[in-house]
Write a structure and sequence with these properties.
Blueprint: H1 17-29, H2 65-77, H3 86-92, H4 102-113, H5 129-137, E1 142-147, H6 160-163, E2 169-178, E3 183-187, E4 198-201, H7 202-208, E5 211-212, E6 215-216, E7 218-220, E8 237-239, E9 243-244, E10 248-249, E11 253-262, E12 272-281, H8 294-301, E13 313-316, E14 326-332, E15 338-348, E16 356-357, E17 361-366, E18 371-374, E19 378-382, E20 386-395, E21 420-428, E22 433-440, E23 448-456, E24 462-472, E25 476-477, E26 487-493
Parallel strand pairs: 10-17, 19-26
Antiparallel strand pairs: 1-2, 1-7, 2-3, 3-4, 5-6, 8-11, 9-11, 11-14, 12-13, 12-15, 15-16, 15-17, 18-20, 20-23, 21-22, 21-24, 24-25, 24-26
Amino acid sequence: MPQDAPPPTQSAHALRPVARLILVLVLLSGLAVGVPPAHAGATWSPDPPSGEYTPHRVWQMKRNCVWAAGAMLLDKWTHGGIRVSQSVLRRAANDKKGGSNLYDLSRGVAAVTGIRIRFSPGFGDTMTWWQLLDRIEHDGGAVLVGDYGRLPAHFTRWSTSFATRRDSSHAVYVQSYDRVHGKVWLMDPLAEGHYPGEWIDVEALHRFAAIDEGAVMAAATPVRHQPQTAPLTDHAYRLTSPRLAATAVAGSTVKVSVGLSITAGFPSPAAHRLVATWLPVAAPRPSFAPLGSQALVEALSARDDGTPLPVEATTASDPDRAGPAGFDAAVPVPAVPGRYRVGLGLVEVGRKTAARTFAPVAIEVVGPYAGNIGMPALAQVSAGDRFGLRLGVANIGTLDWRPPAIEPDGPRAVVPPPQTVLVLTWRASGGAELPAAELPAELAPGQAVDLRLVLVAPPDAGTWTLVGDVISRTWGPLSSTGRELPTMTVIVDPKVLSSEP
């Protein structure tokens, strides 16, 4: 314990005979804490503290940090019912040299008050770091032993020389824990004057604490409940932003993953639900009309568009207990396609409020008939020349683009035309259109394909746009669903005529 502590503000001298008599009467009356032991040497344990109460801060005498912190613990535990001088506790334990430990504190408290203090590790109240924090958060208090030199410089200002020593073992009193902000109220016996205490980052206090094989060295007020895990709001649970594993398809579910890392020996969190609030966002109109074989497009598009408008919705996944990589749950998607601004939160099962919320993200909900076309953004070719193009097509919906299976034993029939086709069309800056290519795109849900094809550039120079669309004989053009399909800008240079005869 520190050798160079300042003189205490509280009386460190032996109690006068009258004061001793008053203390004995207080103890025998069991003031505010219950019935004292019936015979000398017996020990007892008052109920766990209930409600908020901050003890008087004790400024330690020389080599008295354990005793000063222990005096604050008694004050806290009994809500002011028992206040004992640090010197009285020390003498009761027959400690004449200092360098005291929690065993000495327990023996001294029992001798003076009859209160039995169990402590960690291994002396009747072994606890992990997270269990200690949980106890402190629920109206508890604790004497915590650690290395003074590991505290940040601001918190060692009371004895900078002691902080630089090889052995800077020290005891502090910890009063309360703010999980949300990751702060602990620290009452350091080394602090001078009328210092009431101050907030310290819980991670900084964790570096100070002496922890042996997961058990923290501390004496604390008894636990009021036996927690199985800590709330997800705790600093030790670090989460990544949510990630969607696939496209959100209307009326189905989408897999959402939230990465999790755990520090400070905390346990896996309880099961949580992923709750999503879907707020519709006005979608822009498509910048082009459906393209392709004009007669086919007109026939497929000639229907009443009674598509409903998106509405606000809240959906929740089934309970999920985090695995090694984090939470991984299927979140229901609204039944109406459209663009949404989605707020996600993790809500512990059995609770109503979210333990963690995430920044809203923009999510496009597609209909069951949905697809993607990927192509380069820009190309430059000569008028009329042939050029290679690589593009990708994916069925991201839940409808099958393939034709119905033909019964193997049925009559031989004429092979029907493709059920679904990819149509590429040239569009000039003035609005004129030319067909570019048309090829089958019969894909199962979730299937994608890379295509390599050779196109012929338009005959006229200028800036052209290559527009892609998928047309199904059953559901029509993809462009009619309101999705913005990608386009490719192609700069067509004039044809250079050869000068040779």
